[in-house]
Amino acid sequence: MNNYSLQFTNDGLDNENKVGIWIKDVKVKVSFPKQMNQDKKDVRLLIKTLEKYARTKDKQMSVIKTSVKSGIGSMNGKLPLGAFFEIIDDYIEHGYYLSKTVHFSESKGRTIDFNKTIKKVTPNYYQGSFIYPKHIKRTKRTYEEELLRLIHKYVVYKISHLLEFYYGQIPVEDINELPVSKEQCINYLKQELFNSTNDYKIRLITLLLAFFEGTNGDDNIELFIETSNFELIWEEMLRTIFSNAKRRKFFFNTSWYLYNSEGEVRRKTNKDSELDLIKLNLFEEKNHIDVFVIDAKYYSYSEQNNKGTLPQTTDINKQVGYLYYVRQKIQELYPDSYSKHFYNVFIIPHTTTKNDRKLEAFGYAVSEMDRSEKIIGINADVKTVMSQYIKPNMVGVLNNTFDKEILKFYDTSPLN
């Protein structure tokens, strides 16, 4: 078994506020998001989260940095680290690649395929019998198919050692060298990918390409996927789960009106204020609407970490301002006949420690600017948020819990 150096942290690495995973030879470093448990099993979840953000937010690729920038594998959404795990998963389930294509030839010394012979060869009639002048025979797999199987074995061998920290020891064939160069492998795989119509084969070749494009093809493998801006990913995850309204409708800006010496006035508009996300629950049968103005904060406070960071005065006053504008906008968008209830919320990551509660209110903030406005603080289990982000069909569970937790807090806390 490899003598791995495995390091976990929630505080970034090398004095930088980074979240990600770095693998170099037998050294593995994992920096989890704030408040997330340091569990080896969740390394895969972290990688999937970062890779999904990289795929879906293509205009913000600078947020995610990886050890490979382009190529067939990355273009198909198979960034190297995720592809490496998929290759081992596939091997565990299916074993090594084995072509199911049957080839035929007319060469001697092989088993005759009579069905093919009857269909393909015109017989001669001789003395009351049909004589076939040649026979179609089954052949073994081609060299190209054997090469694909050999490449698969080689890649599995390399990756099984690289990911031993996660999977443990996996029985694999010791294939440490190939009869062709890395460049020849890539060219061959691309050609096979172009010619193949088999879905499984296409998927496997795409994964194998990701290996060669993400490594040097030798023992000096260095891989990473990282971000220094996990707060943007936290915001995007919460928006994916909770937001059901176009937040751009609720952006607002400010303007300067500037005079010149001739008494003319010029308007200069500033950049919009952009709230993180908004959630609307419209109950037509009750003639009622609930409006949630939500700010995603990648801070660290929770009941268990009461020395962690919280939104400060600037954040609180800004959220009060957002709600003030949203009230006006909702009044314009929906008839006066609707009764309306507004909720202002901060959502901060934490890890569930009691009663398996994935969302939990921990308090509320007020501003001297308007003490009637309360901003509820909600802790959201970071692992649950990440899991539901990568599986959108699951988001309803956390969404429903959110509504109940907010209403419960209003009913039972001293907020009112």
Account of the protein in words:
The protein is an alpha+beta fold and 416 residues long. It is built from 12 helices and 16 strands. The chain has helices spanning 43-56, 72-75, 80-94, 114-120, 143-162, 164-167, 182-195, 199-214, 230-242, 313-333, 382-390, 395-412; strands at 5-9, 19-24, 27-31, 64-66, 103-105, 124-126, 129-131, 137-139, 222-227, 255-259, 265-269, 277-283, 288-296, 339-350, 359-367, 370-381. The chain has a 5-stranded mixed β-sheet with strand order 1-3-2-9-4, with helices on one face. It has a 5-stranded mixed β-sheet with strand order 12-13-14-16-15. The chain has a two-stranded antiparallel sheet with strand order 5-8.
Key structural traits:
12 helices, 416 residues, alpha+beta, five-stranded mixed β-sheet, single chain, 16 strands
Give the helices and strands, then pairings.
Elements: E1 5-9, E2 19-24, E3 27-31, H1 43-56, E4 64-66, H2 72-75, H3 80-94, E5 103-105, H4 114-120, E6 124-126, E7 129-131, E8 137-139, H5 143-162, H6 164-167, H7 182-195, H8 199-214, E9 222-227, H9 230-242, E10 255-259, E11 265-269, E12 277-283, E13 288-296, H10 313-333, E14 339-350, E15 359-367, E16 370-381, H11 382-390, H12 395-412
Parallel strand pairs: 1-3, 13-14, 14-16
Antiparallel strand pairs: 2-3, 2-9, 4-9, 5-8, 6-7, 10-11, 12-13, 15-16
Helix pairs in contact: 1-11, 3-5, 3-8, 7-8, 9-11
Short recap of the structure:
Helix content is 37%, strand content 23%. It has twelve helices and 16 strands. The protein has helices at 43-56, 72-75, 80-94, 114-120, 143-162, 164-167, 182-195, 199-214, 230-242, 313-333, 382-390, 395-412, and strands spanning 5-9, 19-24, 27-31, 64-66, 103-105, 124-126, 129-131, 137-139, 222-227, 255-259, 265-269, 277-283, 288-296, 339-350, 359-367, 370-381.
